[in-house]
Amino acid sequence: MSAGAPRGLASSGQKPITEILHPLSAAEEPLTVPVSGGGDKEAGLTNGTPVEKSSPASVSSLFNRLQLDDDLETDARDPYASTETRDLFVTVDDPKKHVSTMETYITYRVSTKTTRIEFDLPEYCVRRRYQDFDWLRTKLEDSQPTHLIPPLPEKFVMKGVVDRFSEDFVETRMKALDKFLKRVADHPVLSFNPHLNAFLSAKDLNKRQGLALLTKVGESVKHVAGGYKLRARPPEFCAMGEYLDTFAQKLGTIDRIAQRILKEQSEYLTELREYGSVYSSWAGSEEELRRPLEGVAGCVTTCCGALEDQCENMSQDFLPVLREYVLYIESMKNVLRKRDQSQAEYEGRLEAAILRKQEDRTPALVAVAFSVLPQMPVEVEKCQDKVECFNADLKADWERWQSNKRQDFKQLLTGMADKNISHYEKVRRLL
Amino acid sequence: MRMMMADSGSNEEVAVIGNTDITPAESENNIINTVVPLVALCDRNILRFKLPMVERGTALLRKMEISVAEAEKRMGKNTVNIQETYTVYLVETRPAETVPEGGTPAAPDTLWRRYSEFELLRTYLLVTYPYIIIPPLPEKRAEFVWHKLSADNLDPDFVERRRVGLENFLLRVASHAVLSKDKIFFLFLTEEKGWREAVLETGFQDKADSRLKSLSAMFRVKNPDKRFTALKQYSDELNTVISQLLRVRARVADRLYGVYKVHGNYGRVFSEWSAIEKEMGDGLQSAGHHMDTYATSIDDILEEEEHYADQLKEYLFYTDAVRSVCRKHELIQYELEIAAQDLAYKKQQKEELVTGTVRVFSLKGMTSKLFGQESQEQRESRLAALEQSIQEGEESLKEKNRECQEFVRTAWEDIERFKEQKDKDLREALISYAIMQISMCKKGVQVWSNAKECFNKM
After folding, report:
1. What is the ipTM score, two decimals?
2. pTM greater than 0.95
3. Strand partners, B237
4. In CATH, what number does B213-360+368-458 get?
5. Contact pairs from chain A to chain B, CB under 8 Å
6. Lowest mean pLDDT among A154-168, A178-192, B394-408
7. Which of A151, A349, B26, B129 has its CA 20 to 30 A from that of B312?
């Protein structure tokens, strides 16, 4: 909390996003609720117009700016170390097991430090369990449908297959939750979501209300999706979809390879351990050769240690990242789907409107065009905004992904190199 | 010749040879050698490993250079007229240090030998010099191999490794103070024809002890030499530990191979993935190439490691040679003890005869009680015969004792030499193994830092 000035600047700079985007997400509601009456439409229009007049340009310029920010971040090597543009810091740590008569569960400590004025205090510390994270994500997805919401770790936990309370599992999950929350907190839009605020600061989460709302929205979305067929999906989204498919496939392969390597490596480790012990037992029956043999045994043992670290590194750091990206792709596909749905709805409604106008005033085509026109820009703008949101989000996320990927590989490679170097040094010590 | 070998039932060692690929007589008479075009079975520049350097301490090595230069596949028909393929090795000898400055080295004398002939030579040495730890031959069939390595006797890699092993065997024999002076060994190196007859004429098979005999000796020796017992125990331990080591090493090699090869898949995925990426594409593509390199590098690494395994194997087989010396010692010790026992019995008989008392119940005592004392003349003659026999026994005991002491002296001398050689060789093998590991690490670091550079460019 030392660099107060730049952070204050950044926060005031980002403030307009909330102002602009809140109405946008508010305008989402009339869109998802099936409307039939003209009056409702009018209302939606008047509500939206004043803000949205200016929004497309400002939003895109804003995103341009944000993208610049992202570029800066990418250049700064470690995105989590660069604190220049950050004013919200969250960490998830210290898992604790709670045993009650009803259930046993794990809570994690969620600590927040911030200078944002939306928060009453500069620091918070609450305990949350997986369910709460899940609630937050649902809420975010619900209130900000145009945005890519980072994925949570899988719920999976089949009883008996995975020990939910094992140290490894909790550790991995904790890291994933930390990642999730950091991603949300670093997000220029999501981080201003009031639900996040509540999640980070509230003593007790009131989750019931949100859940009820969710089911309603979910149903309406489903309804809309079933009713319309897309006319023409813009090529960029087709490309995006295709990219995601291929990428998911490649990622899956990499995941499989990595797991296979891990398996081979751990088997190698088992054999290597035995190899070392054979050398030391040989050393026991020699006089002259005792020292070199013990040396080899020692080397093999240190190699085992290094290899163990590497395996752990891989299963703890490398594989989870891959998994997260697999889930990330799913979330991204989800957003794309939603975009398609909104486009479908827009197209459907446009068609219906034109038809109705044609029935009313068949000869006055120009008038039709004019009467539809004021309605059309709204829809088009909305969609455009969405497209831009998606676009920007995907791009921003892409940048983030890239830097992360680089980071991860660097880590992996350094681990590998370290292993080799330590091995090398140990062996040399013998000579 | 073959009949004789088959008949000598006591001659187990040779019988074992008779069972191997082909008996000497067969290869001499029945095989119509159809020489397959000379193929250099392996690129020897790559694979030519140097086994522990033998010092040119002996007169023989000062006089000539010995090498097994080549291996060649041949086809022939054996006794039952079945076509078979076998390998022959080119034994090269050339005068050492006679090359004048600037002159061309003298053309080497060359001759072809089969593996079975090497075996015969070794058996001959084993029988003729029971007190010497005879260097072992390379393995007959590939043992302790990891899955990728072929266990086929005609596999070029295997043949090449065997060639190196056979050369090493010859050099070991040639550098031995005693063995290098052996005439048969010299003939092996210099006379292609007639060598086999010369070996068999030595009649070494008759001297060979049957395993059964030595086995019974092992259980009956009353006062075993503690040093030999310890040595035997040690060689058993060494045998166990090295074979275990080789087994585990083969598995380690298997796993390491797996680890490297699975990384090779990254090469493919990265290059496929790079097709859909813009900024990252190039980096991924070239990183993929590095992954391919990484996967391929294991082949050379493990090929080199096989050399280390061969060095260990030589000592695994050496343990048999050591045990053979121990066994010989047991046999001699047993014979000595038998002689001593015999003598003691005779002396006891004599004492009984002289004093007329029977300490132990015996048939003779019974007969004398039943049928009365024997006549004076009878006693006198029996006493004289016993006296004579005791004298002989004492002579033979003395002889056995001398023989045994001589054996222990010479054997221990050779054992000391062997120990020194073993410590030196194995130390060197371990060091070269360590160096190998270091170079493997360096290779790994190299490939990974190249890949890292590519990743950094993404």
Report:
1. 0.72
2. no
3. none
4. 1.20.1270.60
5. 130
6. A154-168
7. B129
